[in-house]
Specification:
2 copies of one chain form a homodimer. By secondary structure, chain A is of the alpha+beta class. Chain A contains 5 helices and 10 strands; from the N terminus they run βαββαβββαβββααβ. In chain A, strands 1, 2, 3, 4, 5, 6, 7, 8, 9 and 10 form a 10-stranded mixed beta sheet that branches. The interface of A and B includes residues 10, 91, 119 and 123 of A.
Chain lengths: ~260, ~260
């Protein structure tokens, strides 16, 4: 079966998340339906990061199998034509390298939370930011984030529904920066537990509000107990920024 | 009548523009309705820039008259409460200085066009950018923009429906910059003719595509003939960024 790599941007607000499910449209569904119109027959996808309902992507990576071959250089434009009017856009498409998996070949995933930290609610960025009206201390949040770096048991930040066998993960990067009214929390790791980024962000917000001392974050991590961490941050404001591979699936083939 | 200055952010996509009109909701209408809920009685507004349908604002300035006084420090939050779920947000509110008019006291208005210049359509920024798939030469656009600076008869860039008595305007700034796939055209002047920014942007795009030599922009300006300029650029992508006053209406009163 012909097998392609796609780089995808989407606005998550109108979707029930990446994965097909009853009770609403998913990104997977609209993408597979668009692909099904190219070549009559089934189209199947697998994905680097199964984003939740309302979570956005600037650089999601998808493997697409088609029933019959389609010219890779025309694939992005053809899919975008059939994806209208959904807010899903194929930025790049390429023939997938042999043996490549968007999920298992990934070496780094980067997610970003954007917090709009001002009294007035968002208008221009509605649905794309987490609105926190009370002033947050981004320096304290950055300090609290530091002990989470490296390899740990992240059970405290793992959702009840997480299906991973082990809660051990290696967090490569977790930064908190402020520019005027916007705070960005950026997290990078080979892989994350289910809701790990949202649960870390929910706890960091408690530090930013002054309800937690920065040192409490390390204590909560060490306890490996979900009940001790903060609430799950809302989906709006979270974006899958980038997925990296040892060999870029979109790079032109070397000669 | 108590008289307030408001700083407003809005997403223009769902509106027929600033001004009340039949056949759809306007920003003026939803703001005046929200204000009418604070104090029973009429609320009236005047505005710095009457944005078109689909045009956004990050810093629109409005004068609001209420039937009875309302504490200025609670006004933004109270209006935002009643503005829900419309994508209109009051960023600041203050008692208006005596004799101040948001429109006639303005000394500078700044508008920005954002062009998404890549083959794939926008998903995350849909409605907020002008999508131009063919590659634009931003350097050529910047060169073409330069002769428009200063005081000129801008008849070539004036809409047929413009009600201004004179087409003479002084353009303080017109820049074109590129960052990766995004081109920004930023224009600042004390005031603009109707559709002037959109018509200048439409012509600059022709330069960017190579359909016009950069020097043609100056010739079109000199001809003072609307038929010679490019088409009006679409509303999506245009944002009223800022309105400046000799005395900032939101500054705390000096003692």
């Amino acid at each position: 079966m012909p097998f392609y790599a796609l780089l995808l941007e989407y606005e998550g607000t109108p979707f029930r998340g990446w994965q097909r499910q009853v009770g609403g449209i998913s990104i997977q569904e609209v993408l597979e339906e668009a692909a099904g119109k190219l070549k009559r027959g089934a189209a199947a996808t697998t994905v680097a990061g199964r984003t939740d309902a309302g979570v956005h992507a600037a650089g999601q990576v998808v493997a697409l199998e088609l029933a019959a071959a389609f010219p890779a250089e025309q694939l992005a434009a053809a899919l975008n034509y059939h994806l209208r009017p959904h807010p899903v856009s194929v930025l790049r498409a390429a023939s997938a390298p042999p043996g490549w998996s968007p999920r298992f070949s990934a070496v780094r995933r980067t997610y970003r939370y954007v917090i709009l930290n001002r009294p007035a609610p968002p208008a221009l960025a509605a649905g794309r930011v987490w609105h926190v009206p009370q002033k947050l201390d981004a320096m304290a949040m950055a300090e609290a984030a530091r002990p989470l770096l490296g390899r740990h048991d992240f059970s405290s930040f793992r959702a009840a529904g997480c299906q991973a066998k082990s809660a051990l993960r290696t967090l490569d990067s977790l930064t908190v920066t402020r520019a005027e009214e916007t705070i960005e929390i950026t997290a990078a790791a080979k892989s994350f537990l289910y809701h790990q980024v949202r649960n870390m962000a929910g706890s960091l917000k408690l530090v930013g509000e002054g309800r937690w001392e920065p040192g409490r974050m390390a204590a909560v991590l060490a306890a490996a107990d979900r009940r001790l961490a903060g609430p799950t941050a809302p989906a709006a404001g979270l974006t899958l920024l980038e997925v990296r591979y040892a060999r870029d699936p979109f790079a032109p083939p070397s000669i």
